[in-house]
Amino acid sequence: KAKGNFKTPYCEYDEDMRQQVLKEQKIINAMEMAIENKEFAIYLQPKYRLEDETIVGAEALVRWNSRDNGFISPGDFIPVFENNGFVYEVDKFIWEETCRYLRKWLDEGRAVKPVSVNVSRIDLYDPKLVDYLVALRGRYGIPARYLELEITESAYTEDPEQIISMTKHLRDAGFVILMDDFGSGYSSLNMLKDIQIDILKLDMGFLKSSDHSAKGGNILAAIMQMAHSLKMQTIAEGVETKEQVEFLKKIGCQCVQGFYFAKPMAVQDYEKLFLGD
Ligand code: C2E
Ligand code: MG
Ligand code: MG
Ligand code: MG
Hints:
Blueprint: H1 9-34, E1 40-49, E2 54-66, E3 70-72, H2 74-84, H3 87-107, E4 115-119, H4 129-140, E5 147-152, H5 153-158, H6 160-172, E6 176-182, E7 199-203, H7 205-209, H8 214-229, E8 233-237, H9 242-250, E9 255-257, E10 265-266, H10 267-274
Parallel strand pairs: 2-4, 4-5, 5-6, 6-7, 7-8, 8-9
Antiparallel strand pairs: 1-2, 1-9, 1-10, 2-3
Helix pairs in contact: 3-4
The site of ligand C2E has 22 residues, from β2, α2, α3 and β6.
């Protein structure tokens, strides 16, 4: 980066901001045609039960191979799509793809396991969301237990009343609800008693950012106990090491998802590896 001698640190900052705006503009320009062009796809990342290390299901994660920009990671485009509302269109596409595959596996007589999909906090403000998801499930004839919904913890701090009530409606409609990224935001543990969820999904970044000392571990152990006493199941995500696995076993975490076991993969690979292709 060129530094003129008259430039202040603020100019550097402006340049970073300009780059950011350009990057976002590229994403927005490419977004318009992306669904029509079939540029989005799902990848599946398996989840395992710790007790016997068998697969219990998977999470569907969006992948974008943009005609103009190549592969872009969800961490870059999801926040942009959340700002302009387009995330709802993408999520609807991902949910439908997931139902389509579930239907296909059921028709093929495979040993189908549940798949969770991500529901952006933005989607949760549509009063028709429950009807939409119920209709989608019905259209593909998917038994309720196969389509699970992940709602990020931070959604609850933004507008607790709205999101807690929407969560309840979704759960009443038979969806299994996971609270995603738990421990990454600032929701209070106390709030958990007011939210009806089935599965608490712990963010391992939480353990990484705090030190590996006894303290971080104790907090995780306490969360685990609290979850179980509230009748919630637990899954840890972002599990990368054997040490983490051993520790999670010790404190009674039920399931895990992470690179240590498997990375997100194309649907065809998932079918081959886990559905007896
Ligand atoms: P998430 O829902 O918490 O998904 C987990 C993310 O962690 C995924 O990143 C996954 O690839 C990554 N991951 C899994 N195991 C490990 C591990 O062991 N180590 C590390 N470092 N990372 C691991 P991905 O696919 O890049 O997605 C990032 C985020 O983007 C997701 O976090 C979710 O918030 C959002 N996202 C992804 N797909 C969708 C979608 O279809 N709809 C919406 N609304 N958001 C999505
Ligand atoms: Mg998720
Ligand atoms: Mg997560
Ligand atoms: Mg995460």
